[in-house]
Specification:
Layout (H helix, E strand, L loop, with lengths): L23 E4 L3 E4 L13 E6 L11 H22 L3 E5 L15 E6 L30 H14 L6 H10 L2
Antiparallel strand pairs: 1-2, 2-3, 3-5, 4-5
Helix pairs in contact: 1-2, 1-3
């Protein structure tokens, strides 16, 4: 098995390499937590955040051990933030890749889907439903409000201080270059 490449340049047309500052909720050394440009789940249904490696990699198999831990750490912090801000009760963590599978320059990312009993569009306890590629242009779930984005940003900063994540944070930092 070959080791993943440690360095890569940002891709000029990659939406995850060139992130608008207002879409970034939390920026760590190796990963970021982002507000999706087109959320898959509305705030009322539990919310949706993205965890994205800073380095442009196509899939999880190319991540370094530190990036893997960073991805897991940030996904837990994102879940804590959704719980504190939107009252989310359950989570689905998914790497879908279906809509970009034909894109050779795809950037690996992890979806953190919040689930809530009050959900209307994505019923709690049922599989998530997504549109087909042809339905995408008409599909627009409600986005987070500015107030929710601000509250999430603050909750994620607090989540980084969560004592339950101390060991994971230490392991991630020990492996970081």
């Amino acid at each position: 098995m070959t080791e993943p490449e440690i360095t890569s340049s940002p891709e000029p047309d990659c939406r995850f390499c060139d992130v608008r500052k207002d879409h970034e909720l939390l920026g760590l050394a190796l990963v970021r937590v982002l507000v999706p440009q087109r959320p898959h789940i509305s705030p009322r249904d539990g919310g949706h955040l993205l965890v994205v490696p800073r380095r442009h990699v196509r899939d999880r198999s190319r991540l370094t051990p530190a990036e893997v831990l960073g991805l897991e750490y940030a996904s837990l912090v994102a879940a804590l933030g959704l719980t504190q801000t939107l009252g989310t009760e359950w989570f689905n963590y998914q790497e879908n890749g279906n809509w970009s599978v034909e894109n050779a320059d795809a950037h690996m990312h992890l979806h953190v889907y919040g689930r809530a009993r009050r959900a209307v569009t994505q019923p709690y306890g049922e599989a998530l439903r997504f549109p087909t590629r042809s339905e995408l242009p008409k599909w627009e779930p409600p986005k987070l409000s500015e107030h929710e984005v601000t509250a999430l940003r603050q909750a994620l900063e607090r989540g980084c201080l969560n004592p339950d994540l101390t060991e994971l944070r230490a392991a991630m930092n020990a492996l970081a270059p």
